[in-house]
Specification:
Helix content is 66%, strand content 6%. The protein has helices at residues 3-14, 19-26, 30-42, 62-74, 76-79, 86-97, 106-128, and strands at 47-50, 56-59. It has a two-stranded antiparallel ribbon with strand order 1-2. This is MarR family transcriptional regulator.
């Protein structure tokens, strides 16, 4: 996964973070994390809030978060899933489906239904074993 996508994932999951905390969570160098956060602000894909006399926080507004999730869902690597991570992916997709930007999206709904069917088959197989 690209570093910029890692930073966006981290900001979407954890809310307001400093660039140092983003670096800790993602495993990216502090300097690179600060540069990526600044670049995301310049590209209007993240928002910056300067706490007077202290530090700078980075976060995603609801519109930026919706735009990010819309882009993530279209990427193939997110939709490929192993069986172990299936429940987590299903929760993630259900969370995305509740957002206004995806209201009534037939493709997303079909993916969710397919994941639910797969989980049901796995559950029946485990119950009979």
């Amino acid at each position: 996964m690209k570093k910029m996508t890692q930073v966006l994932h981290t900001l979407s999951r954890h809310g307001r973070l400093t660039s140092g905390r983003v670096a800790q969570v993602t495993g990216i160098d502090n300097h690179d994390a600060a540069a990526l956060c600044s670049r995301l602000v310049k590209l209007n894909r993240a928002t910056r809030h300067k706490v007077p006399g202290k530090f700078t926080e980075y976060f995603l507004t609801p519109d930026q978060e919706d735009a990010f999730y819309k882009k993530v869902v279209k990427n193939q690597y997110v939709l490929q899933s192993d069986i172990v991570a299936l429940p987590r992916k299903l929760r993630f997709l259900r969370d995305i489906a509740e957002r206004p930007a995806f209201d009534g999206d037939a493709t997303l709904r079909a993916i969710i239904v397919d994941y639910e069917r797969t989980l049901a088959v796995i559950g029946r197989a485990e119950a009979s074993a």
